[in-house]
Amino acid sequence: MGPVPVLPSAPPARPGKSVRLTASGSGRHHGSMTVPSPAQRLADHVQHLLGTGPFPPPGGWTHMGAVICDVSFQPRCNYEATLRPRLLRLQASWPDASTVSGFRSRLATEDLAVAMRFNHARKVATARAITDLLAGHGVDTRDDLRTWLDHQSNRAALRTVKGVGPKSVDYVGNLVGRSQVAVDVHLRAFAADAGVAGLPYERLRAAYEEAAALLGHDEAGLEHAVWRHGAGAKAGAGTA
Fold first, then answer.
1. Residue 34's pLDDT is what?
2. Which domain holds residue 118?
């Protein structure tokens, strides 16, 4: 999306002040009224609840075993309390699993459920399947995966793994340094609070991407800020 045109009557933005942003196509006109677009509603809600930032993007991982386990184990899991400590422990105890080939070698001789202290057969199976798929495509490092995800055919291949949906594909991109919006339950709840409910995954992701452009934020940074807001609000619920 190109630069947002500034209306002549709009006052200049001041640090820490919320400014309503208007762009061509940002709403539908009904008589003399303009109905805000989904992106504009999200942008307004971000400014109202989260302020003006900055919103740094998540750091992700350089250890490919941690990347694969993160995307495989995180659904319906309390990330900060349950998953992140296990990923840090895996990174320390399996330093040779920093590449896909190294992680695959570990999986051939050791029990991932034991290493992760997470007895969940389906999540372990997802991690193994992702590992085999990446190895089969010659993906070995964080940089390899970040580049590999540039191609839609590769993203589609990743989705053939049972348990990997569109959100997981976007999420794993953020784990290796891409800037994407991965729409999860927290982002959907935030959107519903903003008056943006019922959109399919791709349309809601596009609305968040446009909101990030309207506000001048990195897409992954905005997504992470919204996620942290939702995860913090539901800390007692035990899900992420």
1. 81
2. 64-165
